[in-house]
Amino acid sequence: MTAKEFTSHNMIGSWPLYKKVGFRIAFLFFLLLCIPLQLSWYKELIKIDWLHPDYRDIYDIARFETAVPNIMFQSMSTTEENDKIAAEISSNWITDYSPWGNALVIAVVAGLLWTVLDRRRSSYKALYYGLSVVVRFRAALGIICFGFTKVFPTQMPYPSYAMLNTDFGDFTLQKLYWLSIGIVPWYQVFGGLVEITAGLLLCFKKTATFGAILLIAALGDITFVNFAYNGSVHVYASYFVLLGLFVLMPDLLRLYKLLILEQHTIPQSFYPNYAEPLYKYGRLGLKSLSFLIFIVLLGYTQYLNFRYDPYKLPATAGVKGLRGTYTVKEFRINNQLIPYHPLDSLRWNQATFEQWNTLTFRVHKPVLIDPTNGGGAPIRDIQRRFEITGIAGGQHAFHYYADTIDHVLYLEDKNIFAGRMKADAKAEEQASQQHNSTTAKSWISDAAWKHIGDENKMVDGHVWSTRRDRVFSHPKGSTNVSKMILNYHTKDGSEIILNGINETNDSIYVVLERVNKKYVLEESSLKAGKY
């Protein structure tokens, strides 16, 4: 049978009513899930400078979330401030998968209306082929972007000093899983190669079934792990499983006959006439453009991201003379000496200056745990929160700007949830305003900024992009996070003296003594960032 005869053979025959109704609903449902509906997506797409791209530009093209207006499924009311906070940090099946439910409701209603208006149509083979192309490429490009964050291991970073010094019981389940992958970066690379391979196979009709099987296996495992460890990417992972099942579904029965029943099986699929210019050049152009953007350009920019600008960890190097792990030798508040006690709610227990611009310390006082995975693609260092997410035990992480001439650190709390523990949001806001009124004018002076320098220029020039310039052209904006201003003094880094104003506007004096701690975990040669 020739290719032409095979194509025309598959166009003969009409579909039964149930199949036509089911297809109409599925067609609308998967379009709603695969087509970006957010106006912001198109605005950001227009802004991309393809001559000076950031990896985030390309990643965001394929990393959009399903956004369907609420019809039946919607989250609980968040009229009160505390409800908004609860919605931010909580997760349940109804709210997590509500966009799918909304899309299904719309698809069923519109599909039934379509059935009434188009009763005489015998089949939708050409339309089904078009939908399969949309689903295949949506899954392929999305999983390729997902895979590159593992091939150049930045999705699950190698643990920081502070994480290595954190008690095992102070990690959330999700954090434990992410760190268990982060400490074996070459396994993470292998996982990324599997995902990219699945995406490449999905780009071609003849290998799409193999790509779908690989996609379902890889992302099904990730979905299960996120449910088991209370992770936060179960929706996005199961989204790819759903798309893979759609691609695989036409071959499921034939695979069963071939592999289980060992019967002679002939694949049957509709192919358009590739001799027509629309299909011939259209498919060539689509695949070529996808390869250039999502393999060549994304691969290159993702390498730069891994090398100089890891998206979950700060990109700016910390003060080299301060880096290390320290015990708290002396601690004073308002000139009152506070002796060491493991249960003291004011005294720091230990402190760490990371390789990047973060100071971490522990206090025996609970903080609201950030349950996210520290993901997203922020430009600013203070927004990269992986080092503080999913950690209890009174762990605090402060991003700092360093005036290395006057030896002053300007610090801001990275845990955006830590300032939201009070039940009375209005009282919290008033307290925050009162605190900020005493520090806002002197937070960071113009003279200090001259010493600190331009934050945008603190990273390696290889990762300069138009997007970075656009982000840093606007002020960071005021936040209610806690702030500290501390002078630092050290000779050789073995001992550091910090004194200044802490987050509660009290004077503080701290003497830190370096600890040359040895870890059972060997240092990795595949760590992101250049510090």
How would you characterize this protein structure?
By secondary structure, the protein is of the alpha+beta class. The protein has two domains: 3-308, no CATH class; 320-515, Lipocalin. Helix content is 46%, strand content 12%. It has 17 helices and nine strands. The protein has helices spanning 3-11, 17-34, 39-47, 55-62, 81-89, 93-96, 98-117, 125-151, 161-164, 173-182, 185-202, 208-228, 234-259, 277-308, 425-439, 446-452, 466-472; strands at residues 324-333, 336-337, 348-353, 358-363, 395-403, 408-413, 483-490, 495-501, 507-515. Strands 1-3-4-5-6-7-8-9 form an eight-stranded antiparallel barrel. It is elongated, with a radius of gyration of 27 Å. The termini are far apart. 33% of the residues are buried.
Name a few traits of the molecule.
eight-stranded antiparallel beta barrel, Lipocalin, 46% helix
Shape, principal axes of CA atoms: elongated
- Write down the overall mean pLDDT: 86
Instruction: Point out poorly predicted stretches.
Output: 1-12, 73-89, 421-441
Overall radius of gyration? 27 Å
State the end-to-end distance: 63 Å
By DSSP, the count of extended strands is 9
| Biggest β-sheet strands, sense, barrel | 8 strands, antiparallel, barrel
Strand content: 5-15%
Structural class: alpha+beta
Side-by-side strand order of the widest sheet: 1-3-4-5-6-7-8-9
Number of helices: 17
Estimate percent helicity: 40-55%
How many separate domains? Answer: 2
Q: What order do the helices and strands follow? A: HHHHHHHHHHHHHHEEEEEEHHHEEE
In terms of topology, how is this protein built?
Blueprint: H1 3-11, H2 17-34, H3 39-47, H4 55-62, H5 81-89, H6 93-96, H7 98-117, H8 125-151, H9 161-164, H10 173-182, H11 185-202, H12 208-228, H13 234-259, H14 277-308, E1 324-333, E2 336-337, E3 348-353, E4 358-363, E5 395-403, E6 408-413, H15 425-439, H16 446-452, H17 466-472, E7 483-490, E8 495-501, E9 507-515
Antiparallel strand pairs: 1-2, 1-3, 1-9, 3-4, 4-5, 5-6, 6-7, 7-8, 8-9
